[in-house]
Specification:
- The protein has about 160 residues and is an alpha/beta fold.
- It has a single domain, classed as YbaK protein (Alpha-Beta Complex), CATH 3.90.960.
- Helices cover about 25% and strands about 20% of the residues.
- A 4-stranded mixed sheet has the order 2-3-5-7. Strands 1-6 form a two-stranded antiparallel ribbon. Strands 4-8 form a two-stranded antiparallel sheet.
- The N and C termini lie far apart (about 35 Å).
Length: about 160
Amino acid sequence: MSIERAKRYLEERGLAKRIIEPEASTATVPLAAAALGTEEGAIAKTLSFLIGESVILILAEGTARIDNRKYKDRFHAKAKMVPFERCGELIGHEAGGVCPFGVNEGIRVYLDETLKKYDYVYPAAGNDRSGVRLTPEELFGAIDGAEWVDVCREAE
């Protein structure tokens, strides 16, 4: 189960106690915000993209959207999402629970600048009924090799 992978990963970093497992679904930003008792923007949604055969993850404010020009300037490729049905295979977590914790080897993780305006953000923890309460700095520090990027635009 991918939540177990995420839990082990977070335990190794002393953050497992931050995992929240509500009974309600957290599979979408609105559902996660309601289940975790926060605003939609504070949900750190994980967007998964293919660049050639490589997978990258970008965590962004829940209401933000990828800015195609910024994305292309940063990654020198067109934004192409990982197909829903291939998330488990390519990332190690199924769609609805994709997170940066305990992912398959070789996946690069980026955090969009939009997350920095929140005191706490809530990424998933490997399934569609979970979240992790972290400051943006704690989230950055918990992900080996993470980088900050500016590839999103706020929702209008």
